Amino acid sequence: MGKRLRQARQTAGLTMEQLSESSGVSVRAISDLERGHIRAPQPRTLTALSVALGMTAAEHERLAGDARALRMHTAGARPRLGEPPRAVTDFVGRASELDLVRRVASAVGRPGPVPIVLVHGEPGIGKTALAVRSAELLRDGFPDGCLHLDLRGVDPEPPDAGEVAGLLLRALAVNPRRIAAGVGERCSQLRAILRDRRCLLVLDNVADEAQLRPLLPGAGPGLVLVTSRRMLGGLEGVLRIALAPFAPAESAALLRAIAGQAADPAAAGDVAALARLCGHLPLALRIAGTRLANRPAWTVGTLVARLADADRRLANLHTGDTGVAAAFALSHAQLSREGRALFRRLAHVPEAGFTAPLAGVLAGYDPDDASDRLDELVELGLLQHEGADRYRFHDLIRLFARERLVVEEPAGSRAATRERMVRWLAAS
User: Fold this and answer.
1) Helices 337-345 and 395-408 meet at what angle, rounded to 10?
2) Polar residues: which segments have biased composition (predicted)?
3) pTM (global) more than 0.85
4) Of 141, 244, 336, 388, which has fewest CB within 10 angstroms of its CB?
5) How would you label 58-91 residue by residue, b for 16+ Cβ within 10 Å and e otherwise?
């Protein structure tokens, strides 16, 4: 295949640089193809090269046939790495966020650093769904590949940058024997390759800045989409997209797309009530819709009645191996001991919103220390800023905090904390 491509380029009287300019395929990728270092090129890459070389349909088919034969030969020997996961077929909403990502992608290839887009937000808000949907819409503009990798940021021991770089290098068809051994050298090798390739890189579920920073390319024709529960405030030059819960109309649209019962116009009132009980959280809505779809005898009102009991709501927002409480628990496990204590005691607050001084009363801190601990909760997506000095729980996360309070603190301690809060509120 490489020999056939090189002969076609030479016959056309083109240098690699000229072919790159006319096809949109990077010089590095063309060189690797001609030397046989890319063993399974993307079909759209070959199409772009064929058009730029003026190949006939028969010539293109011979080149594509070579590539198919290589894929079949290597499929059993080496698994394909980095292929994006299956996108949801009922994706709704996020129009402004998708438009923003498209605008960033339209600037790819201009002088300057590779654009980095960070999608962040609370657990279950739909970060991965947005990133995968964006990649699906944009991948044709990245002929050198669209790679997705889960960095397992909420695992007890996420992979470090060196391990991630090794996986990405393998996904970019670098021979394992040529991958550098040291973390720094390996990350540098990755950045050097991405400098010359028009790749779309989706780094999903990032743990922190230390895991991500060494992987990011400098200049080049690519785009990097990052998702994380954290805001990763230590990163510079990053476009941050903070996801919020769905608008009511979007919540209703998702429920209708999943469950036939929700599509009945007569159920519109119950659909709106169900969306409110789910806090317009995409994960909760998807679970609720799936439960309805799997139980044709249920009406939307049946599930509304089940979720009306706040003490059982999280238990009912669970299906198969997916649950809202389980998603929250992954972030909760990353909190410090002091952060967990503050998180659960905030469940005493009678409203969803509160100030740092009240949080300090609940946890026994002065306001400055309380602000630091509240920032820890915000960083992990368990709490949201609301104005300069106010914070707010998502309704479902507040229920999770209440569950943790009952499980982790004895009744006497809970009563004492509540009494302290009541006295402070009365004196304020």
Assistant:
1) 110
2) 8-21
3) no
4) 388
5) eebeebbebbeebeeeeeeeeeeebebeeebeeb
